[in-house]
């Protein structure tokens, strides 16, 4: 090794040149709440249980989504609709209990593909963070989309742009 190599000056200068080059590049970081990063059109986010235009639940508790789920993250219990509940449920059978364990979910989208009634879809939002395991088990109340008759703005926001695209195709 030469005297200059023993002092590590060429290596230090080379490292400083790399650092200086990175200082003037475009930043990869985004400022999240103010800026939203664009998601891929095939992004699979948080699950949503869908309603029809009249505000009735689409889910008939057939169980195909639970069977299709490779991670076994979906559990449901079916119940019979009562005579005075026609305004709540489309069919005579409905999901009395519907839960998704997001810690087990792998966001594969097979539940969405298996559903014959388009009752479940993966939205464009990602699952929020939580401090407990129970916070990641979403019940039917947390998964249901807002009622289109009472909360039209929240309903359209929850539908997102992907739902509008699939409706047009």
Give me a quick take on this structure.
30% of the residues lie in helices and 14% in strands.
List the helices and strands and how they pair.
Layout: H1 3-6, H2 9-23, E1 47-49, H3 64-68, E2 74-80, E3 93-101, H4 110-114, E4 120-122, E5 137-138, H5 140-143, H6 152-168
Antiparallel strand pairs: 1-4, 2-3, 3-5
Write up what this structure looks like.
The model has no long low-confidence stretch (mean pLDDT 86). The protein is of the alpha+beta class and 169 residues long. The chain has helices at 3-6, 9-23, 64-68, 110-114, 140-143, 152-168; strands at residues 47-49, 74-80, 93-101, 120-122, 137-138. It has one domain (47-168): Alpha-Beta Plaits (2-Layer Sandwich). It starts with a helix and ends with a helix. The strands form two sheets. The protein has a three-stranded antiparallel β-sheet with strand order 2-3-5. A two-stranded antiparallel ribbon has the order 1-4.
- The stretches of 5 or more residues where confidence is low (pLDDT under 50) are none
Strand order of the largest sheet: 2-3-5
Global structural class: alpha+beta
Task: Measure the end-to-end span.
Answer: 69 Å
Assigned CATH architecture: 2-Layer Sandwich
| Radius of gyration over C-alpha positions, nearest whole angstrom | 25 Å
* Estimated share of beta-strand residues: 5-15%
Q: Please report the number of helical segments.
A: 6
The level-1 CATH class = Alpha Beta
* Secondary structure: helix percent: 25-40%
Shape: elongated
Order of helices and strands: HHEHEEHEEHH
Total number of distinct structural domains: 1
Tally of extended strands? 5
Give the CATH topology: Alpha-Beta Plaits
Average residue-wise pLDDT: 86
Largest sheet: 3 strands, antiparallel
């Amino acid at each position: 090794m030469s005297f200059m190599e023993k002092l590590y000056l060429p290596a230090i200068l080379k490292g400083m040149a790399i650092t200086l080059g990175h200082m003037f590049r475009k930043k990869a970081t985004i400022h999240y709440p103010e800026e939203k990063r664009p998601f891929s059109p095939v992004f699979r986010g948080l699950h949503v249980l869908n309603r029809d235009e009249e505000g009735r639940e689409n889910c008939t508790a057939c169980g195909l989504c639970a069977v299709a789920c490779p991670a076994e993250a979906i559990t449901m219990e079916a119940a019979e609709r009562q005579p005075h509940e026609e305004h709540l449920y489309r069919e005579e059978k409905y999901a009395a209990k519907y839960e998704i364990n997001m810690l087990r979910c792998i966001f594969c989208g097979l539940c969405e593909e298996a559903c014959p009634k388009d009752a479940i879809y993966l939205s464009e939002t990602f699952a929020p963070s939580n401090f407990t395991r129970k916070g990641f088990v979403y019940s039917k109340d947390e998964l249901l989309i807002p009622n289109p008759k009472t909360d039209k703005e929240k309903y359209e926001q929850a539908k997102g742009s992907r739902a509008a695209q699939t409706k047009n195709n």
